[in-house]
């Protein structure tokens, strides 16, 4: 009885297979492959760009430290805090009260901070003006490099900031900083005019050589230009990736639209949509011309059916 019941029992309704299991696995299209490769390349370039921005930031700090350290030795003769030194550079008078323009050592001056000694005065005056401007723009360069490092980081945007123009502008001011630092340190280390007496304390040199400051400033400029170049290439790659993603999205949206005759259906603009061969579109059997032709070959025509009926009698 159980066997008969099992054979005569109604079949249980099984769940319909999912659409994903019925749909065949489609290989990735060319646009999808290009988009994924572009994303990977974009991430790598973004990491390199961010690293270059960090390197530029470090070079700016080193160049700024070498220039400030050298100016410390010129102004006061003793290593003091950078902020105090900058304040003294911007506020000290340039008059040498005791010896006038003929003094040769800083002992002849009433205040060692007032440097205006002989032929070196032009170097100090020009370097001071350039140094003030360069220090302000160097602070701006630090902010710009930090912002650009964040800009290169995925999902972090500093707005529509003209980063390339700002970096190019600040690199020019970095050149002024290198010139000013070189001029100040060269004047401090040249001859017997104020500089050597202020830079030599207990027989030891306090500040670095002018060439060290010059190399650090040139490295700052090179790092800024490298960051600018990498940023330009990254923006071009981003634009290319946006085009690839747009093409991929358009390919998924406008795959195939056929009318009942199997022809390509025009879109809203009246233009013919290109039929993509690499995408599979489910077509109802009998609707497509190829399916109708195969169905006609498989099924006998009406005349063949009557002929077989007549032969059978």
From TrEMBL:
The chain crosses the membrane at residues 47-68, 129-150, 166-189, 209-230. Residues 28-37, 267-280, 295-313 have a biased composition (Basic and acidic residues). Coiled coil: none annotated. Keywords: Membrane, Transmembrane, Transmembrane helix. Residues 13-37, 267-313 are annotated as: Disordered. The keyword Methyltransferase does not apply. This is Uncharacterized protein.
